[in-house]
């Protein structure tokens, strides 16, 4: 699809074939990012890895990311953090057993705890009120969630000055501040559990696999994940039907080129629409249905090699933290399903559960999931 946003030509890739052209065949040409107001003011003058233009700064930043945070050795060395935060999370949820819980709040707390400890060396917000009183540098869970929520909103907002440069001085943008969860891993897990609660037979199938592979005497460990084929299928199906980014971050043509027989001028901005690819009926039978079994026996991964499923993008600008995000989702979703029976509050029927999404830079649920959990493992396992 060819559009004109103000003075800039824009292309939207809504098929896996065209996405492959931009992200693989012509990856180097489209490896840069357009300069936007969000990139300048929210991301330290385009210094953020996601919004930095292609060049030496981006290359150096990516090397630091891959070597210091996301290498296989580093990921292994941080496993204890992921395990400890998972155990702390299930312990908190156990204390809330039998009560309605806004799930995304707990999931965001979990994922931010992991990232905070990896990057800053400690869980900088998950402390008691007394400890906060003597620490000016610590923020609450709620404060940090609001900061991240605003970050995603401001990065995804339409700013007229990004498209019509001579109107850049105007503050004409208006945006919908409706949004639930903001952390991408938390959003994916919330959608997965929503789909399973709505379809109890799928939840039963998942727990049967967990009981068969893990038993009821311990928690799921990362080494168990390759054996949990149905859990893996649930995650892939969630990423297909509910991609956390309905549009990948925009790419910028650095030179004139020809794609699929069309001449693409330098400066064209390209969006890959993962939401449409994930619902393409030519790729997916019953595309509107949540069917994890479609991935059983199929060699489709989420790491940028299969262009029908691109939750983390592909090519040079693929999300450098995909491995961490995937590990967090796999371990924590598996243990949430292993550790608890899930149901909706008494006044909500499964068939009435809203599956509306908020469309923006991310796609959280329009109405956050409220669920009730009951422990399904021996009670001593919930103690830390």
From TrEMBL:
CDD domains xref list: CYP71_clan
Coiled-coil spans in chain = none
Chain residues that bind heme: 319
- Gene Ontology MF annotations: heme binding; iron ion binding; monooxygenase activity; oxidoreductase activity, acting on paired donors, with incorporation or reduction of molecular oxygen
Cofactor(s) listed in the protein's UniProt record: heme
InterPro entries in the record = Cyt_P450, Cyt_P450_CS, Cyt_P450_E_grp-I, Cyt_P450_sf
Sorted alphabetically, the keyword list is: Heme, Iron, Metal-binding, Monooxygenase, Oxidoreductase
Question: Which Gene3D superfamilies does the UniProt entry name for this protein?
Answer: Cytochrome P450
What family classification does the UniProt entry report for this protein? Belongs to the cytochrome P450 family.
**What name appears for this protein in its UniProt entry?**
Cytochrome P450 superfamily protein isoform 2
Report the source organism: Hibiscus syriacus (Rose of Sharon)
């Amino acid at each position: 699809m060819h559009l004109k946003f103000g003075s800039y030509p824009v292309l939207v890739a809504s098929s896996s074939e065209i996405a492959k052209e931009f992200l693989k065949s012509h990856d180097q040409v489209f490896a840069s990012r357009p300069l936007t107001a969000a990139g300048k003011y929210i991301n330290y003058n385009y210094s953020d890895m996601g919004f930095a233009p292609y060049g030496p700064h981006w290359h150096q930043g990516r090397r630091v990311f891959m070597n210091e945070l996301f290498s296989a050795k580093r990921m292994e060395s941080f496993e204890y953090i992921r395990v400890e935060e998972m155990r702390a999370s299930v312990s908190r949820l156990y204390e809330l057993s039998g009560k309605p819980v806004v799930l995304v709040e707990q999931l965001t707390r979990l994922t931010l705890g992991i990232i905070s400890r990896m990057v800053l060396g400690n869980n900088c917000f998950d402390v008691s009120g007394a400890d906060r009183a003597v620490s000016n540098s610590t923020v609450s869970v709620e404060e940090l969630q609001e900061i991240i929520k605003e970050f995603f909103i401001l990065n995804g907002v339409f700013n007229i000055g990004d498209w019509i440069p001579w109107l850049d001085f105007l503050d004409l943008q208006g945006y919908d501040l409706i949004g639930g969860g903001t952390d991408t891993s938390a959003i994916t897990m919330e959608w997965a559990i929503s789909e399973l609660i709505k379809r109890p037979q799928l939840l039963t199938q998942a727990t049967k696999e967990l009981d068969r592979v893990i038993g009821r005497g311990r928690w799921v460990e990362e080494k168990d994940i390759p054996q949990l084929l149905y859990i893996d299928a649930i995650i892939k199906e969630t990423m297909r039907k509910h991609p956390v980014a309905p549009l990948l971050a925009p790419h910028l043509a650095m030179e004139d080129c020809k794609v699929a027989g069309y001449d693409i001028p330098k400066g064209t901005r390209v969006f890959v629409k993962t939401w449409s690819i994930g619902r393409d009926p030519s790729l997916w039978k019953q595309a509107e249905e949540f069917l994890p079994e479609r991935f059983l026996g199929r060699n489709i991964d989420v790491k940028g090699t299969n262009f029908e499923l691109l939750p983390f993008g592909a090519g040079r600008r693929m999300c450098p933290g995909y491995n961490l995000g995937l590990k967090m989702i796999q371990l924590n979703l598996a243990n949430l399903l292993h550790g608890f029976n899930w149901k909706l509050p008494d006044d909500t029927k499964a068939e009435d559960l809203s599956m509306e999404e908020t469309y923006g830079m991310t796609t959280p649920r329009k109405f956050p999931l409220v669920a009730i959990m009951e422990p399904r493992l021996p009670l001593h396992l919930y103690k830390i």
